[in-house]
Amino acid sequence: MNHSAKRIRYVLKRLLQAIPVILAILVVNFFLLHLAEGDAADVLAGEAGSATPEYMAQLRQKFGLDKPLPVQLAIYLKNVLSFDLGFSFRHNMPVSQLVLDRFVPTLLLMVSTILLAVGFGIVLGLFAASGLNTWRDNVISFFALITYATPLFWVGLMMIVVFSLKLHWFPTSGMENVAMFYEGWDRVKDIAHHLVMPTITLSLFYLALYTRLMRASMLEQAGMDYVVTARAKGLTERRIVFVHILRNALLPVVTMAGVQVGALIGGSVIVESVFAWPGLGMLAYEALFSRDLNLLLGIFLLSALLVVAINLIVDVIYSFLDPRIEVT
Amino acid sequence: MNTNASLLDLRNLYVKLPGGAERTHAVEDVSYTLNNNEILCIVGESGSGKSITARAIMGLLPAPHVHVDQGEIFFNGENLTTAKESRMREVRGGEISMIFQEPMTALNPVMTIGKQIDEVIRFHTKIKKKHRRERALSLIESVHLPDPKHIIKAYPHELSGGQRQRAMIAMALAMEPKILIADEPTTALDVTTQAQILKLIKELQQSHDTGVLFITHDFGVVADIADRVAVMQHGKIVEIGTTDQVLNHPQHPYTQALMRAVPSLTPPAVREISDKEELIVNKLTKTYTSGGGWFGLGEKERVVHAANEVSIKLHHGETLGIVGESGSGKSTLARCIVRLINADEGEILYHNVDLRPLNRKEMRPYRSKIQMVFQDPFASLNPRSKVGRIIADGPRILGVETAEADKRAREMLELVGLDARAWDRFPHEFSGGQRQRIGIARALALDPEILVADEPVSALDVSIQAQILELLADIRERLQLSMIFITHDLRVAAQVCDRIAVMRLGEIVETGATSTLFSNAEHPYTQELLDAVPGRDWHPQ
């Protein structure tokens, strides 16, 4: 029984499974956007103030919008497969370049948020569960309830007011101080400095969620038979909590985190606009209102790829945590 | 330390339950002793306090709600009820160990067997890692697990039930404890596995001079393994003595009643059965396939023949037993016959109509004719429905007027011996035995001709079991039912069934009249099953 060889086969199998998923996403996205009223020609014409029908037709012909839908879909699929995501008429740039530029900041924000939310959520949940119904549990549960109930944008704005405007600890917006032309480690430090407030704002909600989940999960596992066995073996409470219960209690938290990564991209739109973070969320928001279908499709595709990839990563992590998952 | 003292000496032990419980004490005034190299069986039905006593000895009561409030537990002369927690940690796993009923849940699912054994040694000694590993390997070998090097790296789910219990025993014996507490260690196992585990416990107990406190509800197991027996009821010990005294000359009325409830292995006199065939199952096959696909990247294709060309005949008014161990396909067969799952091939002939290929609509007129009673009386009744509705729903769905269906349901309640007041109550307000009666009433309300009972008594205490079996026999006579009775318990089968079919790995290996089968089994597997029945040499008076 070779566990690592099995795991490689498992990853390959999952990659294979991802192909039809991504194809389906491409097709569904395409039709979804065509269900919306109006197209790029309408928006351009609208912004110009007025346009003759001839001009509109000309625009549509130029963008390929006059062709029948299946043909447009076929062209779209062919282009995507050759890594051509099309051209954004709004930004006058290739979509792939636009999207990739914004992808790194989003990834940065997402990863730091997930790590913070899951990491602290686990620690807080653990503390709350191990001191059940003591002041520690009450404080943590109260904190979780408050953060769970507070709207993201309000937290963001308040953080700016307190920590940027009053205390001057953190910058108000942006991802880096472009005017300083930092290089190397200075640049990393600068970006990290900018990252603090958006990350905290975005992660608070999820932090509360994982804290509560972890607490419940710890309490559930503490009642299991194997915990009695561990006690009957003469182990210390410390060992029982940190080795036996903890690993079992992590499983639902990891599952939940995997599911919510997708929702994070959506949730980041608010935080990105509050902190002017140059990420995908902001770009999607702009693209939506300017009917920039090519750009939107590109963003959708990238987000879908991201979610598929992260789900795969979570599943692999899960197979390490829970040997009962058959990775064959 | 006092060398004359018993290994374990419980004196007037009381365990307090939290307020609002059914009784104030889970354990009341319990005293017994356990000596070196002795197996003391604690027998009792569920709720008798036998497990709580064991947990009290280990200091594992769910404090502070449940705690010892009077009495002492002396272990080698040392009072454990007043011992410090750090001392108790030394005792637990080091000097007194425990094994549990369900080896799947009692082992940590995400930790290898080797690591779980290693932990015990690590927390009780200062042996180096390499030596600990050697010790773990020799322990695994001593409980006769195959290929210790492989087992040490395996996770609990990769072992079978019996293997898991062996691993559990290896873990418990890691520090050569003076006392082993076994809390129903074979209840969740198949009868042949049970026999092996009992043999193993006896063997290890003799070679290590261990005192074993063996908790069980099964008098057959007691007869096989015990030196002395204590019988518990409602938290008190009603009778204690040597195995011979208690099993063969019981004094207390409760013990006597329990003995009477244990089904005998000797089948009763043969009944007259008509030749009329009620149901013929012909070469019924059900196969489960999993895995495969993904261009060879998926798991290896697994094919399980849950039922493989099974043929049985059920005569009018007869009870046909289907006996086998877990995974033998007996439940699959039952569900195929009731058409809860669809068989792949074969025939289910009911009065010359083949039911197998019928679709939902075509099956409807026959649904009421074949009804099922399920194993778990807790899970098989909808907790949100009142009992009256549970019973009346069946006829109503088949088009009977509501008033008529209600009337019939009330009759059924009376037939199964339940009070009419049960009508407006929810299933959780009833005990296990009462719930099984509701389950039977539900099946009977449809006026079936064939009753398929899937382990209807295996979740019940022995005295309740006897009552339900009596009820089923009575109903069979009164309503002229034919019954397919699925069980893993050969004692029950001996008493209930006219004929028995023995199943193994989806196939019927032998069919015959009960008395013939018990006295003269032809197939070696049937013989093996009969030999494994606990307490087969003991015949309750």
Task: Summarize the entry for a quick read.
The complex is a heterodimer of chains A (328) and B (541). Chain A has 328 residues and is mainly α. Chain A has twelve helices and two strands; from the N terminus they run ααααββαααααααα.
Topology:
The complex is a heterodimer of chains A (328) and B (541).
Chain A lengths: L2 H33 L4 H9 L4 H11 L5 H13 L5 E2 L4 E2 H36 L4 H15 L2 H15 L17 H39 L2 H8 L4 H38 L5 H10 L3 H29 L7
Antiparallel strand pairs in A: 1-2
Helix pairs in contact in A: 1-12, 2-3, 5-6, 5-8, 5-10, 5-12, 6-8, 7-8, 8-10, 9-10, 10-11, 10-12, 11-12
Chain B lengths: L7 E9 L8 E10 L4 E5 L6 H9 L8 E9 L2 E2 L5 H7 L4 E4 L3 H4 L6 H12 L4 H14 L5 H4 L9 H12 L6 E5 L7 H18 L2 E6 L2 H7 L2 E6 L2 E7 H6 L4 H9 L15 E14 L11 E14 L3 E5 L6 H8 L7 E6 L2 E2 L5 H8 L2 E4 L13 H11 L4 H14 L16 H13 L5 E5 L7 H18 L2 E6 L2 H7 L2 E6 L2 E7 H6 L4 H9 L9
Parallel strand pairs in B: 3-8, 3-9, 6-7, 7-8, 13-18, 13-19, 16-17, 17-18
Antiparallel strand pairs in B: 1-2, 1-4, 4-5, 9-10, 11-12, 11-14, 14-15, 19-20
Helix pairs in contact in B: 4-5, 4-7, 5-7, 7-8, 8-20, 11-17, 14-15, 14-16, 15-16, 16-17
